[in-house]
Amino acid sequence: MKLAALALLLLASCSVSAAPPGNPKVRYTVDFGPGADAAALQKVIDAYKERLGSIAGELSIGTKSRATTISVELPVSAAFKEAKPVRELKQELRAGEPRSSFSMDPLLPRGELAHVDDEWLRLYPSGCERGLLGSTIVAHPAGAKVLVFEDDRLRTLLGLFGELEILEQATIKFLAEHNTTLDRETERFEAWRKEHPAARLKNFDALAREKGGPVPGTLWRRLRSTGGHALLMRSAEPRFRFDNRDIESTGYSQDYRAYPAVSFELNKERTKDFGDWTESILGHGLAIVLDDDILTLAIVKSKLPGSGIIEGGAGGFSKDEVKELVELLRPDRRSPLPMQPLSLEVEFPR
What we know:
By secondary structure, the chain is α+β, with helices and mostly antiparallel strands. 22% of the residues lie in helices and 31% in strands.
């Protein structure tokens, strides 16, 4: 029986139909925070080389001036892949503007890079930086074709620590018992995000309530399918908490359209707990969470056994994508990185 379907393309990989002249390199800076010594960083560098070796022939990895950061440089074409479909500008982009407001149709949850005619743009939530990668800032009329490029796969390989949890979506009843509402919690969370746009969501988890933090036992995570966020909660009953340690095995499967998918089974001693838990949350949202991202969020319609299938959404997973997930979730690889990254920043050449 399926737990739910992934409405996204995790570790997306598709061909690039446009590339900047000379294929310049893009630089990622990964910050591991206080306590990251040289030996631990070297283990991360070794893990990065193993992860990235298959996607980037020209790869440079090393520590930056700050002792807790690692710098990764690779060609733009290796990091960024085109996101389908082709989009259109909703409004004109004028010549001579280093920064412009930006909107397109259809919307995209997240994309760092876009190409309009011969100009490259860096995208932000409500605007864009113009003339990237040595391109010239020129006018573009409304309706002009926009190619958007995303680096989700590269970000996943750099930032994925490998913590998996199965959680319940926070309910109105639970929030009311704590004298709050979803609107109030959203306001708190968005205020924090505005001040800490590059921080990991786990940093907000640790923030005390009196300092603007969440209701104890709740956590915000990003929906990879939309780029939005959902408020989740951990059960107060220990036997109703499920994570990597409860996974007995992972394997290869197919979804109902015959696309590759990931199957998993919980330890036999945990299957009754899982069935009891899902029976207790009938009609509520169940989320499969990997690090900061919600892979699946679906309504529980019946009691579930201790097994399931993670599917790749409308476009399905490729065989390579399923292979990466199966390897990541294997019981003997619960912590693929020796440390958990705190933030990740990207720099483009001008």
